[in-house]
Write a structure and sequence with these properties.
single chain; 142 residues; Pnp Oxidase, Chain A; six-stranded antiparallel beta barrel; 41% strand
Length: 142
């Protein structure tokens, strides 16, 4: 990725993810996340009974945001991202639990599944680098 993006994502804990419901309407949820920077994978835990779990299984395309855990209105920073939710048996999702529980060990006490988002695109805004400064990252095409 990019050093600024890497640092920002590692520093924070909560993402807002949007998907489409069964009628094609937007549906958003918030989640704690862990990140594999090298592979550009974002992990989150969720109940298989949640509304968004069914929506993600039907349509794995997502978009999301990550904002600072503590907002400073004078120093706007944040991530916009898009990606694809991987199937649980995808080779890139094999280590999802390891990554997630390393960041959030208390989550082991809660039921749910660890989901993996393969991030394909990020736009990072950081006004501390200059007003309106944006850094774009895209997954390389193989």
């Amino acid at each position: 990725m990019n050093d600024y993006i890497d640092s920002f994502i590692k520093e924070h804990t909560c993402a807002n993810i949007s998907c489409l419901d069964a009628n094609g309407n937007p549906y958003s949820f918030s989640c704690f996340y862990a990140i594999d920077i090298k592979e550009a994978l974002l992990y989150f835990k969720s109940s298989p009974d949640s509304n968004h779990a069914g929506f993600l299984l039907a349509n794995p395309i997502v978009a999301g945001t990550i904002l600072p855990d503590k907002l400073n209105k004078l120093q706007v920073k944040g991530i916009q991202l898009s990606g694809t939710v991987l199937k649980f048996d995808d080779t890139l999702a094999q280590h999802a639990s390891l990554h997630y529980y390393k960041s959030h060990p208390m989550a082991m006490a809660m039921s749910g599944e660890i989901w993996t988002i393969k991030i394909n695109w990020i736009k990072y805004t950081d006004n501390t680098l200059g007003f309106g400064k944006k850094i774009i990252w895209e997954r390389p095409v193989n």
